[in-house]
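user: At home tonight, take the chain set out below, taking as long as you need, and be ready to discuss the fold:
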Amino acid sequence: MKISLRLIIANAAMFLCAVAGAFLPGLWSGVSGRDFRPQAVNAGILILVVSFLLRYRFKWPILQMLLCLVPTQFIILLCISNFSGFTGSELFNEFNLGWLFFMDIFIATPWVIGIFIGSIILRKKTASESI
C-alpha cells in the first residue's frame, strides 16, 4: 500500500476518533462547560486503539505510521491559529506551539504508544511463531 493512501487512512481515522471522542460521554465531568479534556481523553483512547490495530493487525511499518503524524500536526496547528488569530509567520509563535504541545498529549502521544504496544506484541508473536 502506498504511503499516500496510508497517510489518508491514518489521518481520516484520527479525525474520526476525535469526532467520536467529542460525542462520547466523558470519563469524568470537566471543570466547566469549556473543559474539553474528558472528550480529548476519549479521543486519545480511540486513537491509541486505532494505531495499535494498524501496527499489530495490519503490520504497517513504524516509520510510515510516524510520518502519518506530520499532516495531523499541521492541521492541528492551523486549527489553533484559527482560534488564536495568529497567521503567517506568527503561526509558529510560542502561544500556538504551546497549545500544539498540549494537544499532542491527546493525539500524538496515544498514537505513538499504540505503535509501541503493537510493535512489542507483534515482535513477541513473531518470535513465538519462529520457535
Notes: Residues 19 and 60 are 24 Å apart (CA to CA). Residues 3-130 form one domain. The chain is about 75% helix and 0% strand. The helical segments are 3-23, 37-56, 62-67, 69-84, 94-104, 108-130.
